[in-house]
Design a protein that fits this description.
Layout (H helix, E strand, L loop, with lengths): L1 H6 L7 H18 L11 H24 L11 H32 L5 E5 L6 H13 L3 E7 L2 E6 L9 H5 L2 H9 L1
Antiparallel strand pairs: 1-3, 2-3
Helix pairs in contact: 2-3, 4-7, 5-7
């Protein structure tokens, strides 16, 4: 089945892209179904079903990427970037998330807010980095990314400290971390 799926990948695509999508899909499936069997943590049926789902998912992802003309970068395979991403999520992002929740709760209870829409220029070089920053900002309570245009982000900020804020005032060290991860 896997051989049939790999041979159906268009000639213009690289085998490496298919394998990466397959592996990521299989790992995600296995993590979600861990503890269901007797082979390590999975049953025979889970391993077979996981492989089938991973092949189907990888084919769909590759087809979608081709239609949207999205090219995967070899940078995504660098384990250092994955470790940096995990450090970012469980370090500065998690800390900012906790602090922002406390700040928003305080502002809701006291009514001390000064909402504004502000513009920041994170100077990120690629769309993936800009999207990652926009999502990080939106996931942090008290801020909401409204638009990304020309590399700049327009953000609704619950407690604006100035009309022309520095990037660190709005999103802490997110942009620096994301630059290390994506560029």
């Amino acid at each position: 089945m896997l051989l049939l799926a790999i041979t159906s990948v268009d000639r213009g695509e690289t085998l490496l892209d298919f394998i990466v999508a397959f592996c990521l899909s299989l790992v995600a499936y296995l993590v979600l179904t861990a503890g269901s069997g007797n082979i390590l943590l999975w049953s025979n049926a889970e391993l077979i079903l996981g492989t089938i789902f991973a092949v189907i998912t990888a084919l769909i992802v590759k087809s979608l990427f081709n239609k949207l003309n999205i090219k995967l970068s070899n940078k995504a395979l660098n384990p250092k970037r994955w470790l940096l991403f995990l450090a970012y999520v469980f370090g500065p992002f998690a800390l900012s998330l906790i602090k922002a929740n406390i700040d928003v709760a305080y502002r809701v209870l006291t009514g001390k807010i000064k909402p504004a829409i502000v513009e920041i220029d994170p100077k990120l070089k690629n769309d993936f980095g800009i999207a990652m920053l926009a999502n990080s900002i939106t996931l942090t309570p008290g801020t909401l990314t409204l638009e990304a245009k020309g590399g700049k982000l327009y953000i609704h900020w619950l407690n604006a400290k100035s009309e022309k804020p520095r990037i660190r005032q709005v999103c802490s060290s997110f942009a620096d971390w994301i630059r290390r991860i994506t560029e």
